[in-house]
Amino acid sequence: MEKFQLMALPYSEHALEPVISKETIGFHHGKHLLAYVNNLNGLLPGSGFEEATLEDIVCNATGGILNNAGQILNHELYFQQFAAPSADNKP
User: Fold this and answer.
1) Structural domain tally of the chain?
2) Rounded to an integer, what distance in angstroms lies between the CA atom of residue 81 and that of residue 77?
3) Residue 7 lies inside a defined structural domain of this protein
């Protein structure tokens, strides 16, 4: 099992339409974020960051490891800031 996994979206891909399209969410989640997760997992062996948290990697790594970890953190924060509309549509 890989150290880092693709996060599950906290809402369906179409929940933010028409503001953000299903295609946009799907592209950023299923392509961009998935690629960063796979890339980071491929770079970790022998790096000294095998047991590190994502936050520790972002604070201490350089190069490709930092880039992929930072992109994972960026995308996870991006997805977590939104919510599907509620019945009364209040934040």
Assistant:
1) 1
2) 6
3) no
pLDDT tens for each residue of 1-15: 689 999 999 999 999
Q: How far apart are CA 72 and CA 53, in angstroms?
A: 12
Alpha helices (runs of H) in the chain, residue ranges in sequence order: 22-27, 34-43, 54-60, 63-80
16: left (phi over 0), alpha (psi -120 to 50) or beta: alpha
Q: Which of 85, 72, 75 is nearest to 25 (CA)?
A: 75
| Cα angle, residue 91 at apex, residues 74 and 24 outer, rounded to 5° | 40
Structural domain of residue 64, as residue ranges?
33-80
pLDDT tens-digit readout, 12-69: 999 999 999 999 999 999 999 999 999 999 999 999 999 999 999 999 999 999 999 9
User: Is residue 24 situated within a structural domain?
Assistant: no
Nearest to 25 by CA among 69, 87, 82, 85: 82
